[in-house]
Structure formats: structure tokens, C-alpha cells
Amino acid sequence: MTDIDVIIIGAGAIGLSTARHLAQAGMSVIVLEKEGAFGTHTSSRNSEVIHAGLYYPKDSLKARLCVEGRPKLYAFCESHGVAHSRCGKLIVASNRTEIVTLEDLHHRGNVNGCDDLRLIGSEEARNIEPVLSCEAALLSPSTGIIDSHGYMLALLGDAEDAGTSVAYRAPFLRAEHTSYGFKVFVGGEEPMQLACRSLINSAGLFAPQVARQIDGLSEAHIPVARFAKGSYFSLSGKCPFSHLIYPAPHAHGLGVHLTLDLGGQARFGPDIEWIDAIDYTVDPQRSNGFNEAIKRYWPGLPDDALSPSYSGIRPKISGPDDPAMDFRIDGPEIHGIKGLINLFGIESPGLTASLAIAEELFRRLD
């Protein structure tokens, strides 16, 4: 068995950013990834948006880590040559009632530390985006987009340069708590046993499943996995927008919004579909609901302009009738097992917050 400081389960954006941070701090780190490549699930199947941090409740982990993570992420992109754009975002109110929602968002964003937000009227919004239809809009200049694959590749490079080893097609089977830390059993073509002092469960969609294979961890500390699928559709033809366009948010998400890739191509999504098993197939018929939602803020959307693109699944720990949950970073103070940290419900804004989450985990291990 190999005696190492930390084993991280999952090579998504959170796992890789954490491995990088811990390795650069002098720790020996191994990342276990059951797939054949990094970031094949939530980290690569999302809107690739760098969020400002205005949506989340005051003092929540989502608010704090997003606001802390955003400038770190922009600085990382600059220093590592990761493609990104600080293109800005307009959140739009389609009626007078939704203006109240924008006012609440504006206040919440200011409380969370988003100090560049500006509530604007319909005329100014149309000056910024001439084909936009709205009663008012909230402008977030610090929102942007990122090449998520390029970002994870840069994280991986730093982590490996600092000594991290990433084992692909190496599924975590179970872990036993020992006097020195953990004995970890790994499957795959070459099964192995590893010994580590600390264990971080960053398995995303599979985090509850992984947690159930850690001996001694009470079921009371493991949430039920909820899969909220979101489909995306791409726009054929030239996009008339230069900013991201979001509708006023609703209880379970941010609505069908318009995002841009780094080439200026528009895509719309995600919607929400609660599913029982992982399935990334995009049903073309779901575009019917997309058209109606998009025409609320872009009445000029051409007919038959949308085509299926891709889908992602949010690793939620609350159901369709439950209030939205915060990130869960469960350490020994929660479950009583020294050296173990479980991450549950790391959905949006996890990508934006990833560098801040890595620092948070380092502080907790230290």
C-alpha cells in the first residue's frame, strides 16, 4: 500500500482544483477517477458561466465561495491562458411583478459583495441589446464565460507539476477508517489498496453513492441524490446578443437563459427535468417549451431556429418540492470521522467557486 496525505475521489473541476492547491502546499495527493478522462459529467456539461454571486442567500457557502472564487478564477484564466470573456449579463423582467424580483436580486447581490450591479430601465437595456424585450433589467458586468475544458486542463497541469497523480478508470470501491487514516480499495483493470491520512469525496453526481461505501459513516449524514437534468439547444444563424441574457429566476433554477460560447455562438438552456438515472440524451421535443420561454425576452426568435445541443445533470440534494439547498462540505464536526470531507450538492456556482472551495478544503484539513 502507498502511504499518502490525501486521496481525492473525482477529477472534476472541484477535485482538480483541490488537488492543485493541496499539492502546491506540499501534500502528496492522488485523485481517483472512474471515467477515462477528467470532468466528463457536471464540470463539462453546464453553461460555462462565471457567476457574479447575486442569486444566493446571505452567508451561504454558495454566496461566499462564489464571490471569493470569481476574481480568483479570472486571475487564473489570465495567468494560465485559459480562454474566457467578461462579457456581462442582463437579467430581465418581462412584467412589472418581475421587477420586484430584480430589486430583491440587486439587494441580495450587494449584500453578498457584488458591488457593480446596476438596475436599468427598458430603454437603456435596449440601447445595450437592441432586440431585447423587457420592462427592466439588472446588469451584471462581472459575469463572464469560460472554456471549462481548458480550465480543467490547466488545473491538471499545475496539479501534476506539483506531484499529484491522477488515476483514470480507477473506481473507488470502499474505504475503511484506520488508526493512521484510511485504507482505500480501488477497482478497475488493476485493483489496488491505498493508505491515506485524509479522504475527500468530490464525486459530484456520485458523492452520496461514494459516501455509502465509507465504513463507519452513518446513513444520517448522507443525503439522497437528486438528478435534475437540463437540456441545451443551440441557435442556428448569427446571434444578435453580445451579453448573456437571463430571465428572472424561479424556485428551482435560473430559467432558460441565453449564453454564448467563446466564438459568439448562442445556446439556450437549461430547462429542468427530474430523472431517476443518468441519461444525457436530448429530446428534440423539449424545444417547444424553449421557444415560449425565449420569446418572452426575444420576440424575434426565428421559427425552427433551435437544434438539440447537449445536456447536463445537476447533483441536487433537494427534490422538486423542496427549497434549494446550499453546498454541503461535511467534515468531522458533522459526521465524527477524522480526516474525511464529503462534498454534497456542488452544483452551480461550483465551477466559479472551485478555486475558493479548494482553499476552504485546505483550511479544514489544516
Automatic annotation (TrEMBL):
Keywords in alphabetical order = FAD, Flavoprotein, Oxidoreductase
**Gene Ontology MF terms in the entry:** (S)-2-hydroxyglutarate dehydrogenase activity
- Gene3D superfamilies found in the cross-reference section: D-Amino Acid Oxidase, subunit A, domain 2 (3.30.9.10), FAD/NAD(P)-binding domain (3.50.50.60)
The family note in this entry says: Belongs to the L2HGDH family.
Transmembrane stretches, by residue range?
Answer: none
Keyword Flavoprotein recorded: yes
Q: Which organism is it from?
A: Rhizobium skierniewicense
Q: What is this protein called?
A: L-2-hydroxyglutarate oxidase LhgO
Which Pfam families does the entry mention? DAO
